[in-house]
Design goal:
By secondary structure, the chain is α+β, with helices and mostly antiparallel strands. The protein is 40% helix and 21% strand. The protein contains four helices and five strands; from the N terminus they run H-H-E-H-E-E-E-E-H. It has a five-stranded antiparallel sheet with strand order 1-5-4-3-2, covered by helices on one side. Helix 3 packs across helix 4.
Length: 141
């Protein structure tokens, strides 16, 4: 009987398939994979946690009727035309050091704005800029 090279070798069956590839959640396998990762990295968990980037996201909502949502989304697409823009999930407009995601709520009369920046000032500035644009547009309709 030989010792396993790493923790996941303990849980590989005769078929060579790992149990964590099953279509269900298994907390024990997750924990053992975490231990395996920590062994390979040779670092304590708190050191790895400290090395992760810090989140700097803020959220706000603006009241907007269902009829106004489409007009606002069209207007924000035009407003962000000179910037890097993604239209995958709502409208994500990238500024220099920040981005804003403009996302209409599916069931409530709201438009959500999510923003993130390198600093809180960048984040707050991009949220303030686009929330003012939306509010000014809604008042002009």
């Amino acid at each position: 009987l030989r010792a396993p090279e790493n923790i996941t070798d303990l849980f590989r069956g005769g078929s060579g398939r790992y149990p964590h590839l099953e279509l269900r959640y298994d907390p024990m396998i997750s924990f053992l994979l975490l231990l395996d990762f920590l062994t390979l990295e040779q670092k304590p968990l708190h050191a790895i946690k400290e090395s992760l980037p810090k989140g700097n996201i803020i959220h706000t909502s603006i009241y907007c009727t269902a009829d106004e949502k489409a007009a606002v989304m069209r207007e924000m697409t035009v407003a962000g035309a000179d910037k890097e823009i993604e239209l995958i999930d709502g409208i994500r407009i990238c500024e220099d050091n920040a981005w804003v995601l403009i996302l209409p709520d599916a069931s409530h009369p709201l438009i959500h704005l999510y923003g993130e920046g390198e600093t809180t000032q960048d984040r707050d500035a991009v949220i303030e800029t686009y929330s003012l644009r939306i509010k000014n547009f809604l008042s002009s309709i």
